[in-house]
Amino acid sequence: MAPYTTPEYHPAFEEYCEAIFELDEDDVDVIQARIADRLEISRPAVSEMIRKLEHEGLVALDGRISLTPLGRRLAESVVRRHRLAERFLTDVLGLSWAEAHWEAGKWEHVISPKVEAAMDTLLGEPTTCPHGNPIPGADYHAPDTTPLGELTVGSEFVVSRIPEELEFAPGMLDFLEQAELLPGRSGVITAASPDGTTTVEVGGSHVGIGAFASARILVTS
Fold first, then answer.
1. Which H/E stretch holds residue 189?
2. CA dist 141 to 126, 128, 184, Å?
3. How confident is the model over 133-192, as pLDDT tens digits?
């Protein structure tokens, strides 16, 4: 896969386009409040930056915030580098999910096209990041998935994807990795509580998954 080529933009522009892309990917309303929460930036600052992005032709405003073709191209290039970096940091260097996610947030702005291509080749042209999210430009075919929390007690499942929304929840990546809720791992629903907590058995261990996470973890069954 040839690396994405886009004009160079300030890292802040890349961060915003990436956030908009990922919120849309997770079916989260792309509004200024959500962007502010994701980037941990004040709403007035987000409002000012959105105006700049619109001026640059990277976003369009029509009741919601959406990426223009140019903005989407930029976002995909950043997301691709981030997810390849996560793969490299976990698969080659052995970092934890949480460490890799944090470090990849810095790497995504400095990986050159040549390094990106070499990294892709070294990793065997992966189609997803360690959490199962698709790498833009890869030969990814989305399976039919269901949120974990929608399965009934006794249902067997295979973890498919941990959406980006969960990657930004404090402590969530560490928890899921320790619980072995990793893409490709199989399990079974052993209990479901009225508060939305789903108890699963994975690798011989039982773990309770809160409503927020169980509604977002995507599995095949």
1. strand 186-192
2. 12, 10, 15
3. 999 999 899 899 999 999 999 999 999 999 999 988 999 999 999 999 999 999 999 999
- Domain regions of the chain by residue span: 1-138, 146-220
Q: Are 82 and 111 in contact (CB under 8 A)?
A: no
Buried b (16+ CB within 10 A) or exposed e, 64-93: ebebbebbbbbbbbbbbbbbbbbbbbbeee
Q: Fold for 1-138, please state it.
A: Arc Repressor Mutant, subunit A (1.10.10)
CB distance 138 to 125 below 8 Å:
yes
- What does pTM read for this prediction? 0.89
Is residue 1 pLDDT above 50, yes or no? Answer: no
Contact 181, 190 (CB under 8 A): no
Instruction: Name the CATH topology of 146-220.
Output: SH3 type barrels. (2.30.30)
Q: Which helix (H) or strand (E) holds 59?
A: strand 59-61
The C-alpha atoms of residue 142 and residue 206 are separated, in whole angstroms, by 28
pLDDT per residue over 32-69, tens digit each? 999 999 999 999 999 999 999 999 999 999 888 999 99
CB atoms within 10 A of CB 109: 16
Report the C-alpha gap between 49 and 149 in whole angstroms: 36
Task: Return the structure tokens found at 200.
Answer: 């699963």
Cα Rg of the chain, angstroms: 18
Cβ 6 vs Cβ 73: under 8 Å: yes
